[in-house]
Amino acid sequence: MTSHSEPSAPRASRGRRSVDDHAAAVRDLLHPALERLGRDAVTVPLPEARGRVLARPVIAPLDLPPFDNSQMDGYAVRSADLPGRVTAVATIAAGHAEAALAPEPGPRAAAPIMTGAMLPAWADAVVPVEAADPPRFVATGEEVTLPEAPAGQFVRAQGSDVTRGTTVLEPGVRLGAAQIALLAALGLVDVPVRDALRVAVLSTGDELVQPGETLPPGRIYDSNGPMLAAALEDAGAAVLTVQAQEDSPEGLRAALARLDGVDLVVSTGGISQGAFEVVKQGLEGGVEFVSVALQPGGPQALGAVTIASGTVPFLGFPGNPVSSLVSFEMFLRPLLAGPRPSVRAVLEGAADSPAGKHQVRRGALRDGRVRLEGGAGSHLLHALAQADCLVHLPVGLERADDGAEVEVWIV
Fold first, then answer.
1. How many distinct structural domains can be found in the chain?
2. What CA dihedral angle connects 18, 24, 28 and 34, to 10 degrees?
3. What pLDDT shows up at residue 12?
């Protein structure tokens, strides 16, 4: 849903803006939209909840496990009957409670039981089948010798994981595979999640051709649009990809005027110092164009634009793919999905960084050591695809020698 409170562009700064200052400006710009998303909730089916942010606490409607069950394939027994010879009664299979709910057998009985099967009320322990003599399941009515087994041995007690009525997930949790598994185990089919930020991604540039089309001389396929759409969806946003029909200031404004019902517009390209910077030419006035002390990703734009449904925040990222993705990682993703996991790692090889800039390099992290992938160039998509982390060389660190410890974001 579009925010109806008009976002205000941040104040212009003199010279180059620091990474922290620009991150704060982006945070201030998006605060109204993100605050609304924190209040609004929608209900989605469990299979669609992956990656979404929980809007309300989840209260367990039942115990987990819902009944005492066996941790092993073995014999369900009374601990007081052991050690010694016992007589096998009916086998208890997982998912079949009939034998477990049958009348209590006489003394010195043992029920062959499978992993996960319901423990009969008369039993308080399980002996693994390999500990029996003979080390196998015997037929009903036959005898088997079992060793001593303390009460509770290899028993998963009812409610030992989750107790009915307790809060198992708090609002604000991003739902991944483990959280989805918990919700499924509790039998929940609908999940209250925060409404997703609706983002329009606009790729600019006369040189761009869409994948699948014929590639004329001097043209390139658009990688930024699919890349940012994937990154935004991974961060929980709902994405609309847009391409201006005409790469001109007028064409850009027309593309924006057709947009409806989005909360944020993100563009790539057209914000640098060239002669054909369509975003800069088309949006001067409501959008601020700044130089940030970041490599790659120095040129940045932010402010407000008018679309069919009102005025919404706008972020402009550079056109080179690595610059665009680094900009997203540094300034937008933390607001949508929280910070990336950060570790310290030992650098393999040396790296130089320009004075006065925060450099972000791509790397491969293995066993506490990080190897840089590719050079500092912002067009190196193959190196970007090989990387699994971002290596940070902050302002003031103009050279990191082989063996230096550096900050690494795991992506």
1. 4
2. 130
3. 36
